[in-house]
């Protein structure tokens, strides 16, 4: 039975802002230059094999969809932002991936369509976490596997969002912070008793791309949608812009391991739908 859901009309403007945010800048550079290993790690941890039906939710440019397709699986890469899918399609012309625009909170596929549903720092940015979690489980067949890789609240990207929070408008009521997907208590509440063998594996990616705090700040200001939009919102406030500069420089300086390298912490959530 097909019981796909439809996003409430009140969310239309919010989703439009999300699409615009991720289409701004150059997230493809971040995925390619900073975190290319994340999708590979997630796919390997799930043991995806040839012939399985795999849905990548919040796929972006294919960080996880591409390595999943290389296993021989039948892969759909879905994302709210068509511009990212277009880049992914161009970057992976040799791979059999079906690139589809889709809202993680209202997926357009029937119940039990997939053997595996996964996401690499993607679904965590859907504004309503329960709706997204419900959709993940709905499109999975009974016994199907899920794998969600998310930044943690305590890790570097979690601290980045906490730092920017004071420089951006408050989100609409009901919108939850993305790094909550990196909290075990929160994810257990989202999935409840609908998932067996729910596990949480914490790890990190070493980042040595930046020459120093200023290089990190300018790179994220120019390429990473959430940071870019924070700066755009302060375009006519030079004093606040300078404060954000200082806050991001301090964040990057504190994260330096002493050799120019940073550790960006994440958690992999995995389990089986009952």
From TrEMBL:
Q: Which UniProt keywords apply?
A: Methyltransferase, Transferase
- The organism's superkingdom is given as Bacteria
Recorded hits in InterPro entries, A to Z, give: Methyltransf_11, SAM-dependent_MTases_sf
Pfam families with a match to the protein in the record:
Methyltransf_11
Q: Which GO terms describe its molecular function?
A: S-adenosylmethionine-dependent methyltransferase activity
Query: Which SUPFAM superfamilies does this chain map to?
Result: S-adenosyl-L-methionine-dependent methyltransferases
Q: Which residues form a coiled coil?
A: none
Q: Kindly list the biological process annotations in GO that this record carries.
A: methylation
Residue span, Methyltransferase type domain:
55-146
Name the record gives this protein: Class I SAM-dependent methyltransferase
What organism does this protein naturally occur in? Nocardioides alpinus
The organism that produces this protein has a lineage beginning with:
Bacteria, Bacillati, Actinomycetota, Actinomycetes, Propionibacteriales
């Amino acid at each position: 039975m097909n019981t796909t859901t439809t996003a409430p009309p009140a969310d239309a403007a919010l989703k439009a802002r999300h699409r615009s945010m991720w289409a701004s800048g150059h997230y493809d550079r971040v995925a390619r230059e900073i975190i290319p290993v994340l999708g590979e790690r997630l796919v390997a941890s799930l043991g995806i094999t040839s012939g399985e039906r795999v849905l990548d939710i919040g796929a972006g440019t294919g960080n996880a969809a591409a390595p999943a397709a290389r296993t021989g699986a039948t892969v759909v890469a879905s994302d709210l932002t068509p511009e990212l899918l277009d880049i992914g399609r161009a970057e992976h012309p040799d791979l059999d991936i079906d690139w589809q625009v889709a809202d993680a909170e209202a997926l357009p596929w029937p119940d039990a369509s997939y053997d595996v549903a996964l996401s690499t720092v993607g679904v965590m940015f859907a504004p309503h976490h329960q709706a997204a979690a419900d959709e993940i489980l709905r499109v999975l067949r009974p016994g199907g596997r899920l794998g969600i890789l998310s930044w943690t609240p305590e890790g570097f990207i979690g601290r980045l969002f906490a730092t920017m929070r004071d420089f951006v408008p408050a989100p609409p009521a009901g919108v939850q912070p993305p790094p909550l997907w990196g909290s075990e208590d929160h994810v257990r509440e989202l999935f409840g008793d609908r998932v067996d063998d729910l596990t949480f594996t914490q790890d990190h990616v070493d980042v040595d791309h930046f020459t120093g705090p200023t290089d990190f700040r300018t790179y994220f200001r120019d390429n990473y949608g959430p940071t870019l939009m924070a700066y755009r919102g302060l375009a006519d406030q030079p004093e606040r812009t300078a404060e954000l500069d200082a806050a991001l420089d301090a964040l990057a300086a504190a994260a330096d391991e002493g050799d120019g390298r940073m550790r960006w912490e994440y958690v992999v959530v995995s389990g089986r739908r009952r």
